[in-house]
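Whiteboard transcription, Tuesday session. T.W. wrote the C-alpha cells on the left side:
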C-alpha cells in the first residue's frame, strides 16, 4: 500500500469559537493520505487578554501531535515566564518541555496509547506553530514547516520561516552534531531540522537540546497588531503547497467579502479553502497531504 488512498477523504472536522478580541475557525481534512496525523489547539481567552492557537503536523505517526495537543496549554499556563508575561521565553520553554515530557517513562507510555498501530517504539515527531495574542501583541513560535501568515493591509506579512535542513544555519548545526544533509534530509531521512519528538535524533549526551541533529527550540517572531491587521492564517505545510501566501489570503478575503465576520462565515472560509487546495489526483504529489487550517479573525 502506498502513502495515498484511492479516493480522498474530504469530510472536515471544523471547530469555531470566539473570545473578547478574536473569532476563529479551525478545519482539518485527511485528504488523500492513508491516515490523519495533524492536531491543533484553539483557546481564545485562555486567560484575560491572552489567546493561544496552534497547529501540529505529525510525521512517522500521529502520536506526538496528539500528545502535544493534549499537554501544550497546560504546560504553558504552569510556566513561570508565562505568569510573568514574558511570553517569548515562555513559548520557547514550553516547546522544549514537550520533549522533556516525551522522554519520560510516563510520556512514552502515553504516546503508545495514541499510536494507530500500537508498538513499544515511537519514531514519530511533529511540527509546531503556535500563535499567542496578548492584548495587541502577536507572538508566533515555530519549529518545522507549519506556518502563520498575518493578513496586513490585505497583503501577507509572514510570521514564520520554515526550518529545512538545507538552510545554512540549520545545516551547520546538523554537521556539528555529527550528522549530514542529503537530498534536503537530515541523515537522508527527515526533511525537517526542527520538530517536537523525533527523539532518536536527540539522544547524543555530548550536546545540549538546542545543539542536537533535530531541535525543538522554536524561532519566535513578534509584531504589534493594529487596524490594518485583519486575520491570521495558520496551517500545516499541506495548506501552503499549491497557492502562495497572497493567493491564500485573497481566497479567504473573497469568501468573507464585505459581510460581518461571524463564526459561520469563518467556518465556510476555512472549509472552502481546504476544498480549493485538495488535488484532483495524486499524480503531482502536491495537494495530497493532510490539511489543517486555522483562521483567527481579529475583532476591531
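and on the right, the sequence the group agreed on:
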Amino acid at each position: 500500500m502506498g502513502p495515498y488512498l484511492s479516493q480522498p477523504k474530504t469530510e472536515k472536522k471544523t471547530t469555531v469559537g470566539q473570545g473578547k478580541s478574536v473569532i476563529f475557525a479551525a478545519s482539518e481534512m485527511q485528504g488523500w493520505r492513508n491516515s490523519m496525523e495533524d492536531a491543533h489547539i484553539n483557546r481564545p481567552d485562555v486567560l484575560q487578554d491572552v489567546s493561544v492557537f496552534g497547529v501540529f503536523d505529525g510525521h512517522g505517526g500521529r502520536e506526538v501531535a496528539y500528545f502535544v495537543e493534549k499537554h501544550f496549554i497546560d504546560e504553558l499556563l504552569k510556566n513561570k515566564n508565562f505568569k510573568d508575561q514574558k511570553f517569548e521565553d515562555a513559548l520557547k520553554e514550553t516547546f522544549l518541555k514537550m520533549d522533556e515530557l516525551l522522554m519520560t517513562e510516563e510520556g512514552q507510555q502515553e504516546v503508545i496509547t495514541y499510536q494507530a498501530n500500537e508498538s513499544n517504539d515511537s519514531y514519530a515527531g511533529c511540527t509546531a506553530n503556535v500563535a499567542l495574542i496578548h492584548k495587541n501583541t502577536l507572538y508566533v513560535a515555530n519549529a518545522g514547516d507549519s506556518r502563520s501568515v498575518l493578513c496586513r493591509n490585505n497583503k501577507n506579512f509572514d510570521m514564520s520561516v520554515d526550518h529545512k535542513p538545507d538552510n545554512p544555519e540549520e545545516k551547520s548545526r546538523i554537521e556539528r552534531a555529527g550528522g549530514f544533509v542529503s537530498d534536503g534530509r537530515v541523515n537522508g531521512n527527515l526533511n525537517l531540522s526542527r520538530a517536537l519528538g523525533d527523539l532518536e535524533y536527540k539522544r547524543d549526551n555530548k550536546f545540549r537540546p538546542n545543539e542536537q541533529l533535530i531541535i525543538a527550540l522554536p524561532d519566535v517572531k513578534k509584531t504589534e497588531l493594529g487596524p490594518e491587521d485583519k486575520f491570521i492564517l495558520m496551517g500545516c505545510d499541506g495548506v501552503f503547497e499549491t497557492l502562495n501566501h497572497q493567493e491564500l489570503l485573497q481566497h479567504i478575503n473573497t469568501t468573507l467579502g464585505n459581510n460581518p465576520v461571524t463564526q459561520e462565515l469563518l467556518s465556510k472560509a476555512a472549509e472552502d479553502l481546504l476544498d480549493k487546495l485538495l488535488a484532483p489526483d495524486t499524480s503531482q504529489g502536491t495537494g495530497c497531504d493532510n490539511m489543517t487550517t486555522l483562521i483567527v479573525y481579529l475583532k476591531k
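Someone added at the bottom: The CA atoms of residues 47 and 77 lie 9 Å apart.
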